[in-house]
C-alpha cells in the first residue's frame, strides 16, 4: 500500500463519523485561533516598535546628555511666551567628548547638533515652542507627504503630528504644502530671525520622537549659524547631546559598566532598547500569557483526538483484522491512524489560522478608528509566512503525538481476534 493510498484511505475514514470528527477539529480550531491571534499581535506590535527603534538610531548607539537636562511632559507643544527667558542647561564640551572616548568599549563620540528654534507659527495666531532635528540617514515614517530633502534650496519641514492641530490645520493632509513661520535667535546678541518654511510631510505618531519634527539641511545650517552668531569662540564647541557609538558585541555587563561610568561623570546615557525596550517586554509578556491559554486549549483538544481515534479503532476492529489478514503490516496500520490524527491537526490549524486572519483584519479596522487612532502606521495584528507554518507544524505534531496511542493499539491487534470481534 503506497503512501498516497494511505493518505486517501485516512482522509476517507476520517469522515465516517462526521459529527465526532468536526467536534475534534473545532477543539483544535480554538487553540489554533488563539495562538495565531496572539502571535499576530506580537508580530504587529514588535514590527511597530522596530520602526520606532529605526527612527532613533542603531543598536550600538547610545544617547548621552547632561543628567539634569530632560523633557517636560504634556499633551502637545507648549505655547511660546514672548518675555519668558529660556532655562539654562549644562553643555558638553570638547574636553568632555575626549573624556568619553577614553572609556572602555567606546568606539567614537559625535556631537548631536540640535537646532535651537524659538517658535513656530502656522495658520493660527498662536506661536508654539518648536523642537526639530536635522535630517539623518535613518528612515522616518511619514503619515502624509515625504521626508525633507537636503538638496532643496528652500526651507522644508517634516512636521511632527502633535503640531498639526495646534498650528490650525484640520488634518495631516491639509497641512501639506502650507508655509509656516520659524523663528530662531542668537543667545549672545538676542537677535531673532524669522523665516518661512514649507511643510512637505507629516510624521507618523511615534513612541519615541517626543514631538520632534525634521528640518532639511539648509534650514538647519541657518539655524545653527544664527544660534552661534556673536558667541565667544570657547562657547561654539559646546553641545547639548552627543551620540556615543559602542564597540560591537558588547556584553550586558560591559554595557552596564559603561553606563555607570557615564553616570559617575554626571551624564544620562540611554540606548535604543532603554528608550523603548520596556514596552517590548510588556507586550511579549502579555502575548506569552495569551499563547499559554491557546496551548491549554490544544492540550484539551489532544485528548479529543485520542478519544476520536480510540472510538474509530473500536468501530473498525474487524476491518483492521481483515487488512492484517490480507498482509498489511502493523507499521502501515500505525501510519494510517497516525495520518488521520495529522489530518485532524491540519484542518484544525488551517481553519484556526484563516479565522485569525479574518479576525485580525477586523481588529485592525476597529483599532485604527478607536484606541489606535493616534498611532498612524500601526497594524495591531500582522501575520508572517514563517509564523503561520510554525503554528501549523506544531499543531500537526501535537496531533500526531496524541494519535500514537490509538494508532499503536490498532497496529497491535491480533488479526484472528479482530475478525471475531462483534
List the SSEs and their pairings.
Elements: H1 3-14, H2 18-56, E1 61-66, H3 94-101, E2 106-112, E3 117-121, E4 127-128, E5 132-134, E6 142-145, E7 156-159, H4 162-166, H5 172-175, E8 179-185, E9 192-203, E10 213-215, H6 217-228, E11 241-246, H7 252-264, E12 267-271, H8 272-315, H9 317-325, H10 330-368, H11 385-411, H12 415-419
Parallel strand pairs: 5-10, 7-9
Antiparallel strand pairs: 1-11, 1-12, 2-11, 3-4, 3-8, 6-9, 7-10, 8-9
Helix pairs in contact: 1-10, 2-8, 2-10, 2-11, 8-11, 10-11
Account of the 3D structure:
- The structure is a single chain.
- The protein has 422 residues and is of the alpha+beta class.
- 51% of the residues lie in helices and 15% in strands.
- The chain contains twelve helices and twelve strands.
- It has helices at 3-14, 18-56, 94-101, 162-166, 172-175, 217-228, 252-264, 272-315, 317-325, 330-368, 385-411, 415-419; strands at 61-66, 106-112, 117-121, 127-128, 132-134, 142-145, 156-159, 179-185, 192-203, 213-215, 241-246, 267-271.
- The strands form two sheets. Strands 3, 4, 5, 6, 7, 8, 9 and 10 form an eight-stranded mixed sheet that branches.
- Helix 2 packs antiparallel against helix 11 (385-411) and helix 8 packs parallel to helix 11.
- The longest helix is centred in the C-terminal third of the chain and has 44 residues, at 272-315.
- The protein is elongated and about 110 Å long.
- It starts with a helix and ends with a helix.
Amino acid at each position: 500500500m503506497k503512501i498516497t493510498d494511505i493518505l486517501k484511505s485516512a482522509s476517507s475514514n476520517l469522515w465516517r463519523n462526521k459529527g465526532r470528527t468536526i467536534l475534534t477539529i473545532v477543539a483544535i480550531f480554538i487553540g489554533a485561533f488563539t495562538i495565531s491571534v496572539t502571535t499576530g499581535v506580537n508580530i504587529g506590535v514588535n514590527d511597530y516598535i522596530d520602526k520606532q527603534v529605526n527612527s532613533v538610531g542603531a543598536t550600538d548607539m547610545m544617547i548621552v546628555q547632561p543628567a539634569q537636562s530632560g523633557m517636560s511632559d504634556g499633551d502637545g507643544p507648549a505655547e511660546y511666551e514672548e518675555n519668558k527667558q529660556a532655562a539654562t542647561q549644562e553643555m558638553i564640551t570638547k574636553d568632555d567628548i575626549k573624556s568619553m572616548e577614553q572609556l572602555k568599549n567606546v568606539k567614537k563620540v559625535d556631537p548631536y547638533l540640535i537646532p535651537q528654534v524659538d517658535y513656530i507659527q502656522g495658520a493660527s495666531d498662536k506661536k508654539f515652542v518648536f523642537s526639530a532635528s536635522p535630517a539623518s540617514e535613518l528612515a522616518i515614517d511619514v503619515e502624509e507627504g515625504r521626508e525633507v530633502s537636503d538638496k532643496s534650496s528652500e526651507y522644508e519641514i517634516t512636521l511632527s503630528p502633535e503640531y498639526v492641530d495646534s498650528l490650525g490645520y484640520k488634518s495631516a493632509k491639509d497641512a501639506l504644502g502650507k508655509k509656516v513661520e520659524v523663528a530662531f535667535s542668537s543667545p549672545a546678541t538676542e537677535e531673532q530671525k524669522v523665516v518661512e518654511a514649507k511643510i512637505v510631510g507629516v510624521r507618523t505618531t511615534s513612541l519615541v520622537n517626543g514631538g520632534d519634527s525634521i528640518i532639511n539641511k539648509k534650514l538647519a545650517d541657518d539655524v545653527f549659524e544664527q544660534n552661534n552668531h556673536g558667541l565667544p569662540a570657547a562657547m561654539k564647541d559646546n553641545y547639548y547631546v552627543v551620540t556615543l557609538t559602542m564597540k560591537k558585541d558588547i556584553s550586558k555587563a560591559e554595557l552596564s559598566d559603561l553606563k555607570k561610568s557615564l553616570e559617575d561623570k554626571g551624564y544620562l546615557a540611554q540606548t535604543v532598547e532603554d528608550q523603548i525596550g520596556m514596552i517590548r517586554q510588556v507586550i511579549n509578556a502579555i502575548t506569552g500569557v495569551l499563547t499559554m491559554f491557546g496551548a491549554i486549549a490544544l492540550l484539551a483538544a489532544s485528548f479529543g483526538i485520542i478519544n476520536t481515534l480510540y472510538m474509530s479503532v473500536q468501530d473498525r476492529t474487524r476491518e483492521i483484522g481483515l487488512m492484517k489478514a490480507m498482509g498489511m503490516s502493523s507499521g502501515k496500520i500505525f501510519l494510517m491512524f497516525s495520518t488521520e490524527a495529522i489530518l485532524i491537526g491540519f484542518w484544525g490549524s488551517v481553519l484556526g489560522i484563516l479565522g485569525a486572519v479574518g479576525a485580525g483584519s477586523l481588529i485592525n479596522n476597529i483599532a485604527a478608528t478607536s484606541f489606535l487612532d493616534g498611532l498612524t502606521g500601526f497594524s495591531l495584528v500582522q501575520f508572517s509566512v514563517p509564523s503561520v507554518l510554525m503554528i501549523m507544524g506544531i499543531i500537526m505534531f501535537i496531533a500526531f503525538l496524541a494519535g500514537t496511542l490509538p494508532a499503536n493499539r490498532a497496529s497491535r491487534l491480533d488479526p484472528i481476534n479482530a475478525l471475531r470481534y462483534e
